Amino acid sequence: MPSTQKKSNVIVYTKILYILLHSIQIMWFLVSFAGTEVMGKDTPEQHKVHAKEAVEQEFKGWVERMGARYDAKHAADAGDSLASTQTYTFANQLRTVTTKTIVVDQKGKGNYKTVQAAVNSIKQGNKQRVVIQINPGVYREKIKIPSTKPYITFYGPAGAAKTILVYGDTAAKAGSTSLSASTTVMSDGFIARGISFRNSAPAPVGGAVGRQAVALLIQGDKAAFYTCSFYGAQDTLYDKSGRHYFKNCYIQGSIDFIFGDGQSYYEKCHLNSIANPGSGSLTAQKRSSKGEDTGFSFVGCVVTGSGPIYLGRAWGPYSRVVFIRTYIEDLIIPAGWYDWGLSSRRKTVYYGQYKCSGPGANTKGRVNWSLELTDAQARPFKTISFIDGASWLSSL
Ligand SMILES: *[C@@H]1O[C@H](CO)[C@@H](O)[C@H](O)[C@H]1NC(C)=O
């Protein structure tokens, strides 16, 4: 055989091998789940095809309900500026609430040397805000705030770059996705400012089962995060349940890196993908019934990094995610959204974009079960009324 022939054979075999490996990788991704703990919990009931008309009716009703709420609270604010949220600053909160401050300092210049020791010192059933001031340092510890200790603030005066809470568990090592979290917040009324939440487990290949590694799990109601950062790969931020507000935060990951059944408003956040080619999704929202008010609304955010990734995939049958006035780099799979391999979900999810910009925002090629939102459709998601924020954010 002439050597050029041999060469071309080698090229063909290499290509076949490449295609084979790539197919395996894609299959991994398709069968992967955001949480091993939820495997098998999706009952046939949830997969059932729901009558399309009923669902659309429900969406319409919800949009009207939320719209009415918005109109009542923002009667004077007819435009769609974000100005109405600007009074909810951390400074206001520090001024307006009675606080007790506990200082955590690794060099012994505070009350405690670890964050968990400070949390442990707070009484169960705490009724007053307690600020845990965390001085600069890398705190390598697994932190948990139980549900019995509400109104805790983590405050890093040196900022997120210098105030780092990190651990390195994975779902396989810890027992479940939830248990992999470096920091777990089960209580209501949590506030964090200037804190970096990290999971240092090495980034896995796309969607590997058991490699979920959560940086922060938030399960309490009424939480607010200001200028915080979240670093991980697969499943970085477990926005599990409750109403949450994220402002000026940085969130990094690869697969489903903002996931859960939270009802959350992400304002001016930077979402950065570190996905390997062919293996990522920015969100995996888990709304499981039409009666739930949950969903993720991203407003005025920026999406950057490596792709291609989906904007979201439907962990729950009624998954709801919208991007509003968000700049999106060229890293999005044109289809935009993935139904989790369950076509019935196409009829019940609520996925949309509104006045987004950047090459990744181009809606040409999007699945026809996602929406380019109208003004009326976008309205319920555009302000903190999406999380009922006016009733709790300023008095947190
Ligand atoms: C949506 O797209 C699919 C496949 O691309 C097509 O089969 C279906 O008819 C479309 N549905 C509507 C309502 O346009």
UniProtKB/TrEMBL annotation:
The chain crosses the membrane at residues 12-31. Pfam families: Pectinesterase (PF01095). Pathway: Glycan metabolism; pectin degradation; 2-dehydro-3-deoxy-D-gluconate from pectin: step 1/5. The keyword Lyase does not apply. It catalyses: [(1->4)-alpha-D-galacturonosyl methyl ester](n) + n H2O = [(1->4)-alpha-D-galacturonosyl](n) + n methanol + n H(+). It comes from the Eukaryota. The keyword Transmembrane helix applies. Its EC number is 3.1.1.11. InterPro entries: Pectin_lyas_fold, Pectin_lyase_fold/virulence, Pectinesterase_Asp_AS, Pectinesterase_cat. Residues 102-389 form the Pectinesterase catalytic domain. The active site is at residue 256. Keywords: Aspartyl esterase, Hydrolase, Membrane, Transmembrane, Transmembrane helix. Belongs to the pectinesterase family. This is Pectinesterase. It comes from Sphagnum troendelagicum.
